[in-house]
Specification:
Layout lengths: L2 H42 L7 H22 L4
Length: 77
Amino acid sequence: MNYEENLKNLKEQLDRLKNMKYKSEARLEQLNAQKKDILNEIEKLGIKPEDLENEISTLKSEIDRLFTEANDLMPRL
């Protein structure tokens, strides 16, 4: 491989990597905007983002309790 071809390959690789970088930066911006929107929506529901895991756990427990209650109220065949 000669120097010109080697240099050409390096430039092509650099261009591909720059393109990947720009796409990654754009995707990161999208994800950050989406994260901000989700956090705003959570706060509108009256839940602090740091309490989200506890809230999910509480809701799961409530769902389980309601299913158990519904099953207990069903007539037995």
